[in-house]
Amino acid sequence: MSTNPPAAHKHTNRLAQEKSPYLRQHMHNPVDWYPWGEAAFKKARDEGKPILLSIGYSTCHWCHVMERESFEDEKVGEFLKQHFVAIKLDREERPDVDKIYMTAVQAMGQGGGWPLNVFLTPDLKPFYGGTYFPPQPKFGRPSFLQLLGRISELWVEKRKEITESAGQIAEQLKGLGEHEANQDAVLAPAVLTNALKRMTAEYDPRNGGFGRAPKFPRPSQPAFILRAAVRAKDEAAVKAVLHTCERMAAGGMYDQLGGGFARYSVDEKWLVPHFEKMLYDNAQLLHLYLDAHLVSGEARFADVARDIVRYVLRDMTHPEGGFYSAEDADSEGHEGKFACWTKAEVMKVLSAEEFKVAERYFGITEEGNFEDHSHPQPLKKLNVLSIVDPKLSDAEAKLLTAAKAKLFAVQQKRIRPHLDDKVLASWNGLMLGALARAGVVLGDPTYLAAAERNLAFLQSKLWDAKSKTLYHRWRDGERDNVQLLDSHAYLLEGMIHLYEATLEPKHLDFALALESAMTARFYDAANGGFFQSPAGSADLLFRAKEDYDGAEPSGNNVATLALFKLAAITDNKAMRGHAEKTLRLFSERLQRIPQAVPNLLLALDFYLHEPFRVVIASPAKPDAKATAALLRAAHGVYQPNKVVLGNVGAVEPFAKTLPVKDGPLVFLCTGTACQAPTADPAKVKTMLVGKLP
User: Fold this and answer.
1) pLDDT digits (tens, 9 = 90+) for 360-413
2) Is the C-alpha dihedral spanning 208, 209, 210, 212 positive or negative?
3) Bridge partner residues of 383 (DSSP)
4) How far apart are alpha carbons 551 and 281 in whole angstroms?
5) Residue 659 has what pLDDT?
6) H/E element, 148
7) Measured CA distances, 685 to 238, 638, 644, 675 (Å)
8) What pLDDT does 615 receive?
9) What is the separation of C-alpha 614 from the centre of its chain, rounded to a whole number of angstroms?
10) What secondary structure letter does DSSP report for 42?
11) What distance in Å separates the CA atoms of residue 288 and residue 305, rounded to the nearest whole number?
12) Three-state secondary structure along 206-240?
């Protein structure tokens, strides 16, 4: 082992003082980078320079490419220093800033994606932008340095016109987010029927999934389709979702050795992934595979859910319980190098018998099915492992299990992709809730314990109980000072799942504290809906409201369903009113472009159908084992229009009146009527089966 000190870097900029892994990736660029903040804004104002705002995230493949090609170039760095104020922003730390400028670039007809490079006036108004710019002119596009030169010339020659145009763009952007709630909006079951019809029309019957390549799982869409299809007894639509789940889990987008899903598939077959793994995808997919298991009764979907948990707890968990954000697509500069195998590599690891089975099962060939094009010297003849021939005898299944264990052990000795180890309250909230639900559905208390540890981490690092303030990001011993709707909404959803899985009154209390903070800081009492940022955010052109469920769900849509559920648990009419007003605010989207808002459709479904309240009432000294059995029964049926609650704590008054001497007992209630109570878990399941209200 070498004892020589690491080589000194020629350049170190002020990003070295930041905690964001993405910003720190750029701290040795020759670019005079600033983080997003007043120091950069003041420099631009004082010197009359335009701003280059470059936005990305640490596991973004094309962000790495553009850094290597342009931001590590001395000429680019010097030109930017002379003519611009250069700002780097981590979109995962500030999704509210990213939303504004992504919308601006898309409105300019430049598409969207990351890296996002936007040119701003000193007062933060955008006037031009795009995504990836190449180092040399190609595909009819100028090189990045040529673009910088042209922007600089125009800024000198036509600053007044640019400033006026930027002002107009900013006003148009602000107008896009200004809506009034339509009190006469039709919130009827026909909206759900229309949405189901339009979404299933996009189904790919050959490969599963909805839409064409590249295919993103976007779990909220199949989750809605499944709920609407079960209610409508639409067997074809149910099968479409189950087929999609089966094909995704058979493809290379699913890590056949280590568990967990990559971000998306570049092809229509789910075969070749974009190899980065995101916490938010795996949290939402965990819910989807639990749903698929409950609807179908098939163990294979439960196995995928367990593998997602195995991956997260093994590779994505801080020693104190927080969940990391993402793993990169690249390893040693090559996309997919950590995950892929040549035929020769597999043969070297396995016995002849094991290889024969693995070769057929995974479809391993000499030529491979993937070539890494992300590097000047691409890796060739790589195999992305996918399930090509699943039919195995019992003996072959044992050989495959041994083969997978051997391959996994060897893979773990490879150089791992970069880990983005920041902990985000938002994405942790998604995974906390999914873990809690998995724990009770699959009957594994270790999952619930992991969810409890995660909650303790978040409350310790990111929650200020005195001021009821939830902060967004923690990393390396420090939190930020950012407050966002997504953090509150996602964690609120997670806390409701954790409460329903445990009936711990303290979890309901924390959910109520989060709801109070969220409503106070983000709710628009005049028009309905929730802003992404609190009032008084000086670094924003305006306060945006996000309603699009992309790879990450909309904070508005998650908050709306969470409020409906929390209102049902606590009988809080104000919460229900806020949720209903938000539905009315976005009612046109629900009817006109339902594919854009599947999470809001889930909220509409809950609103339109009186939910079952599964009240597990216990005496003063509850029987923990009996309660756990009833909880598992209540969660062991696909019945999304329900809430599960106890009879103590901040629950609805009616639940507290339910009589119980010996217990626990389950009361299945709608409105003020309850069925005869039972202590039999099997009867609880029977009461819930097939009863979508």
Assistant:
1) 999 999 999 988 776 778 888 999 999 999 999 999 999 999 999 999 999 999
2) negative
3) 341
4) 7
5) 81
6) helix 144-157
7) 21, 10, 13, 13
8) 97
9) 29
10) H
11) 9
12) CCCCECCCCECCCCHHHHHHHHHHHHHCCHHHHHH
**Residue 169: HSE in the Cβ half-sphere, 13 Å Cα cutoff:** 27
Q: What angle do CA 470, 471, 473 make, to 5 degrees?
A: 140
Q: Count H helices, E strands: the chain?
A: 26, 21
Among candidate residues 693, 686, 691, 499, the one with its CA nearest the CA of residue 611: 693
Q: Where are the domains of the chain?
A: 14-176, 189-420, 423-609, 610-693
| In this structure, CATH architecture of domain 423-609 | Alpha/alpha barrel (1.50)
Q: In one letter, which amino acid is 595?
A: Q
Distance CA 349, CA 73 (A): 42
CB of 55 closer than 8 Å to CB of 99: no
Gap between the Cα atoms of 344 and 367, Å rounded: 11
Listed residue (278, 318, 326, 280) closest to 460, CA to CA? 318
Give all strands (DSSP E) within 571-677, no chain letters. Answer: 612-617, 642-645, 665-670, 673-674
Mean pLDDT in order along the chain per 10 residues (693 residues): 54 95 96 97 97 95 91 96 98 95 90 92 96 87 93 96 95 79 83 97 96 93 97 96 98 97 95 94 98 97 98 98 95 89 97 97 95 79 95 96 97 95 98 98 98 98 96 96 97 98 98 98 95 92 91 96 98 97 94 95 96 92 91 96 96 91 90 89 87 48
Q: For residue 609, give the amino acid letter.
A: H
C-alpha distances in Å from residue 604, one per residue of 238, 304, 337, 431, 611: 20, 29, 44, 23, 12
pLDDT at site 122: 97
User: pTM for this structure?
Assistant: 0.95
Nearest to 365 by CA among 394, 391, 335, 389: 389
Tokens representing residue 611 in the block: 């939910």
DSSP letter assigned to residue 180? -
Q: Check: CB of residue 87 under 8 Å from CB of residue 53.
A: yes
Distance, CA of 522 to chain centre: 20
CA separation for the pair 448, 638 (Å, rounded) = 20
Task: Quote the pLDDT of residue 692.
Answer: 45
Cβ-count burial of 479 within 10 angstroms (0-12 exposed, 13-18 middle, 19+ buried)?
middle
Q: What are phi and psi of 613, to 5 degrees?
A: -115, 110
Residues 6+ apart with CB under 8 A from 494: 428, 429, 430, 431, 432, 433, 434, 436, 451
Q: Does domain 14-176 have CATH number 3.30.300.350?
A: no
Predicted local confidence at residue 690, as pLDDT: 52
- 549-595: per-residue pLDDT in tens? 999 999 999 999 999 999 999 999 999 999 999 999 999 999 999 99
Q: 612: which strand partners?
A: 642
Which tokens go with 172?
């148009």
**What pLDDT, on the 0 to 100 scale, is given for residue 333?**
84
Q: What is the C-alpha to C-alpha distance for residues 533 and 551, in angstroms, rounded to an integer?
A: 20
- Please give the pLDDT value at position 184: 77
